Each structure stands twice: as C-alpha cells, then as structure tokens.
C-alpha cells in the first residue's frame, strides 16, 4: 500500500494535479471561505460579529440595505435578459437565415458592443440624455432645449437599456452559433411533409435552439444582476441602488462586514438563477447535428427585406455606431455635451490650463493616465499569462489523470468563479488578503492582488479554452512520444503546446480584453498606488469630467476591439454567419 501511494505521488501528473488544486484552492476556495468567515462570529470559527446578517436581512435598515437593492437588481437583470435575448435572437436569425444584403458586415458589427466596456454605453447615454435633476451640465438633448424626463435620464430604464445594448451582443453570438448548426435539410424535410413555415419555426427551429436561448438569457441575467458600472453612473446620482452599488458603498465606506454579507447574497442570487436554468434543460435532447452537415436554408424575405434590413441596421446604429460617435464628439467639445461653445483638442493633447477642467491636462499628456495605461496593459498581460498557464495545466491534468476526485475537483473549482459576480469576487479578495491571514500576506494596495483576482476571475475562460484546444490533439501523438521516452514537460512543450497554440493564444487575448475593460472586479481593489484606466474613467465620470472620461473610454475601447479582432484571427474561428 505504501509503495503504491509513493509511486502515485511520484507520478508527474499527480504532482501537477496537486499543484493545480493548491493554486485553485488559494485563488477560488480560500477567498470564498474568507468572505464567509468574515461574517461569522468568532466563537463559530469566524472573525466577524454575526450581527451583520441580522442587519442586512431582518432589521429596520434591511429594506435599504438589501431588499430594495435586490428588487432593483432583479428588475434590471430581467429586463436585460429578456431584451438581450429577443434582440440578439432577431439579429442572429437575420444574419444566419435571411437573404438581406450586407449581413456579414452586420454580423461583425454586432459582436463589437460586448468587446467594449459596459460603462462606454452608460457614458454615451449620459452625454445625450442627461438632464438637470442632479445638477451639472445637461446632455446634448438638454443643450438643444429638449426636456428629457427623469425616467429616461436616470434610474432603472437607462440602466437596463445600456446593459441591453452591451449584452445583446453576447446573446447574438450564442444564438447565431446554434442557428448555424440547424442544417437546412432538417427544415426542408419538415416542409416536405406539408408543415407551414410557422409550424416549422415553432415545432422544430425554436425547440432546437432553445438551449442557446436559455443560455443567453441566463448569462445576460447573471451579468445584469452583478454589473456595477451602469447602475453606478446612471442610478447612484438619484439613489437608485442595486446589490452591486450597495455592496460597493458599504465596503468603500468601511462597513466591510455588511458588504461581505451582501457579496455572499449576490453570489447566491447568481448561482440560484444559473442552477434553475440548468435544471430546465437537464435530461432533454436537443441534438440537431448529424453526420451529414448542410448549409442553413435561407428565407427569401421579398417585400419584408427592406423593413428587416432597416430594423437590423437601426439596432446596429443604436448599440455600436451612435454610441461611439457620441463619445468621440463629446471629447472635442469645448463645453461638455454642447456644440455651441465650439470644439477643441485640449482634452486629448492640451497642456494644463487653470481655466479648463480645473487645470487638468489632456489625457495624452497626463502622467497619471500614462501610469494607469501602463498598469492596465501590464495587468492584462500578467493575468492572461497566469490564467492561460493555470488553465493549460488544469486541462492537461483532466486529460491525463484518471482519478474522479482530482478531475472533478479541478473542473468544479475552475467553474466556480463564473458564478461569482466581479464585485463580489473583489470583496472576497479583500476579505482574504486585506490584512493577511496565516501564511497569506497582506496584499491590499499592491499590484499583485489585482493580478491574483484577475486570474481567479479568468480561470473559467482560460480552462475551457485550453481544454477545447487540447481536446483537438490526438492522444496517439502523446502516447507515441511517451513510448519514445519523452517526459511530461517535453510532451507538453514539444507536442501539446505547439499544436494547440492558436486556441491558447486566442484565449489569452480574450482574457486580456476582459481584464482591460473590467470595472466591477477592480473597483474595490484599486488604490491610488495602483491606478487602472477603467477605474480612472469611472472616477472622472463621477466627478463630472465628462470629456476626460469619454476620451479614456475610447482608448480602452480601441484596445479591446483591436485585441478581440486579433483573438478571433488567432483562433481561426469560423463565423457562423459565413456558413
């Protein structure tokens, strides 16, 4: 028995599995345990008082602390999920099945909003619809003398619509891929039986893509319930609180224990919704891909072609073209959101002038923003490298190890961060690394807590990308190398990595993009010593420096879109609308 355990522990794959589990334990399990422990009384093994749970859930202040923000979060998330699925599904159908001209360009433009920071659309909205309810400079409509009602300027409606404009792009990608897999032969066979187009759509096409519809709904809901940027920019000025903004307010004002409770509840809400969604499709067969592939059967729209084309381009214009145009124009207006005062490049390249923006120089001449840019790029590179390395090692262990406990543990811990909203994960890292515990040092205020949190949040994407890439490499190649005497490191470095490099590098670029544009995860972790572009943009917008905020947002957008396009080329992904 002892010799068998000794041989197992000396096995390189087993040692690698233990290392991966240890790292995942520190990055995923430990922060969550620290978050829970910080809210549990010391006598029960925690470090908190325990009173925070009562304060949040069942006290005179619980209505403002939890129940009202919860209601607002669910309201926003439901609106985001429903509208994102409907709009994304419509555009996916147009691009995959219709015969409208220019649908390939529509498909490309439809993927751009998700590559943009979510606060880009919120900033564009304020530049147009902001009114004088909370003071400050009104938006473009207000400067033209048009009275914008409060319901369009602030609160649930603009928060929901800006999130829809961001996340419908994700729904489009998911549903378009499912529609592209629905071959024309299946539909043609149904039509030969005499079924009408409506019956084919309802009884065959819709059920076949229902998993994609449900997935897009659940992802949009989870993102909507946890998003911080849009509710903060469009809701906080009028005291419209969601769980994410209430959590941020609690922790940023030193009320950490209640903030940690809100973090745990936010994780629970997201997890319950995803669990219910998974149960809805469990045990049902939605297979539509057979051994014989076929092209999608195009629908000839005839008289409906122009209305559908107009509606599709209106959606693209409202979510991609107009927001970017508004942000770009707003950065060169001399007075915020007003064309009357003329235009200037000061907010881009101007030197410090006491008469403009309290003496702030243009973004390209601001030393603080130069530091933030360097930190952002360095953070994206470090997180991409760390997450992809960890994902690659974890995927290799799952590929080679036969123990269900090890492979199941790695798979579970690699999936858990997907259930944790970014701002809640940031709170978990503060709970664990804020003051240090046991062998873990205090990292709050350093660059490395940002790196570790970024890697933890990116593990699901890196692991799945690596697993998919390694899955395309035949076992026979590795077995042949093993018979030739190649060790584990040599097999990974000489065979697996070169053959899967396109997918791995593409995954790294996507992780880089996610980190560069992310605000929710980093907003609690960033300090003046570690500035980042996304957090700097939020602070500029909160303090009323509209032109500076929009200029930095455009820089982030340019980096994100460029990296996204590069990632798609590196992955060699075949777009579903090219079918």
Strand order within the widest beta sheet: 1-2
Strand content: under 5%
Instruction: Tell how many strands the DSSP assignment holds.
Output: 2
Global shape: globular
Task: Indicate the structural class.
Answer: mainly alpha
Low-confidence stretches: 283-293, 573-579
Question: How does the major sheet shape up?
Answer: 2 strands, antiparallel
Using the CA coordinates, give the radius of gyration: 25 Å
Q: Give the % helix.
A: over 70%
Count of runs of 4 or more consecutive helical residues: 27
What is the element string, with H for helices and E for strands? HHHHHHHHHHHHHHHHHEEHHHHHHHHHH
End-to-end distance, in Å? 57 Å
Task: Let me know the average pLDDT.
Answer: 80
How is this structure best described in words?
This protein is mainly α. 70% of the residues lie in helices and 2% in strands. The chain is built from 27 helices and 2 strands. It has a two-stranded antiparallel sheet. β1 (333-335) and β2 form a beta hairpin. α19 packs across α25. The longest helix is centred in the N-terminal third of the chain and has 36 residues, at 62-97. The radius of gyration is 25 Å and the shape is globular. The termini are far apart.
């Amino acid at each position: 028995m002892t010799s068998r355990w000794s041989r197992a522990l000396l096995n390189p794959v087993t040692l690698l599995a233990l290392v991966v589990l240890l790292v995942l334990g520190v990055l995923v399990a430990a922060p969550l345990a620290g978050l829970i422990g910080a809210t549990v009384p010391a006598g029960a093994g925690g470090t908190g008082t325990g009173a925070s749970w009562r304060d949040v859930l069942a006290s005179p202040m619980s209505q403002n602390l939890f129940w009202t923000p919860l209601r607002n979060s669910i309201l926003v998330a439901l609106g985001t999920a429903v509208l994102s699925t409907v709009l994304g599904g419509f555009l996916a159908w147009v691009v995959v099945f219709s015969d409208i001209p220019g649908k390939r360009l529509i498909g490309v433009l439809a993927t751009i909003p998700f590559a943009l920071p979510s606060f880009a659309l919120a900033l564009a909205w304020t530049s147009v619809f902001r009114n004088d309810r909370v003071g400050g400079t009104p938006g473009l409509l207000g400067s033209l003398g048009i009275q914008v009602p409060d319901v369009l300027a602030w609160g649930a409606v603009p928060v929901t619509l800006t999130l829809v404009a961001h996340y419908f792009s994700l729904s489009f990608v998911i549903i378009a891929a499912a529609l592209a897999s629905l071959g024309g032969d299946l539909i043609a066979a149904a039509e030969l039986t005499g079924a009408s187009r409506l019956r084919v759509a309802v009884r065959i096409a819709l059920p076949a893509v229902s998993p994609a519809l449900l997935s897009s709904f659940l992802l949009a809901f989870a993102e909507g319930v946890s998003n911080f940027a849009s509710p903060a920019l469009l809701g906080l000025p009028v005291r419209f609180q969601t769980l994410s903004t209430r959590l941020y307010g609690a922790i940023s004002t030193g009320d950490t224990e209640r903030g940690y409770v809100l973090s745990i509840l936010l994780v629970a809400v997201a997890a319950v919704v995803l669990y219910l969604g998974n149960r809805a499709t469990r045990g049902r067969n939605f297979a539509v891909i057979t051994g014989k592939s076929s092209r999608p059967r195009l629908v000839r729209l005839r008289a409906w072609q122009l209305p559908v084309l107009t509606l599709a381009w209106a959606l693209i214009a409202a979510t991609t073209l107009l927001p970017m145009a508004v942000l770009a124009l707003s950065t060169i207006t001399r007075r915020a959101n007003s064309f009357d005062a003329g235009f200037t490049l000061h907010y881009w390249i101007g030197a410090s002038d006491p008469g403009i923006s309290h003496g702030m120089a243009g973004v390209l001449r601001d030393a603080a923003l130069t530091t933030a840019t360097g930190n952002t790029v360095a953070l994206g590179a470090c997180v991409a490298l760390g997450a992809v390395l960890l994902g690659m090692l974890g995927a290799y262990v799952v590929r080679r190890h036969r123990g269900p406990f090890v492979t199941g543990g790695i798979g579970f811990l690699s999936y858990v961060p997907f259930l944790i909203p970014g701002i809640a994960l940031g709170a978990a890292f503060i709970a664990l690394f804020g003051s240090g515990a046991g062998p873990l040092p205090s990292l709050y205020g350093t660059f490395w807590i940002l790196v570790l949190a970024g890697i933890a949040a990116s593990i699901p994407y890196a692991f799945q990308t690596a697993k998919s890439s390694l899955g395309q490499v035949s076992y026979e190649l590795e077995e042949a190398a093993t018979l030739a005497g190649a060790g584990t490191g040599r097999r990974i470095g000489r065979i697996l990595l070169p053959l899967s490099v396109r997918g791995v590098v593409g995954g790294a670029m996507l992780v880089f993009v996610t980190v560069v544009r992310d605000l929710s995860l980093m907003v609690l972790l960033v300090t003046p010593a570690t500035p980042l572009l996304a957090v700097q943009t939020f602070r500029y917008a909160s303090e009323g420096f509209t032109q500076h905020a929009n200029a930095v947002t455009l820089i982030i957008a340019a980096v994100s879109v460029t990296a996204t396009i590069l990632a798609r080329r590196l992955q060699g992904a075949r777009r579903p609308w090219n079918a």
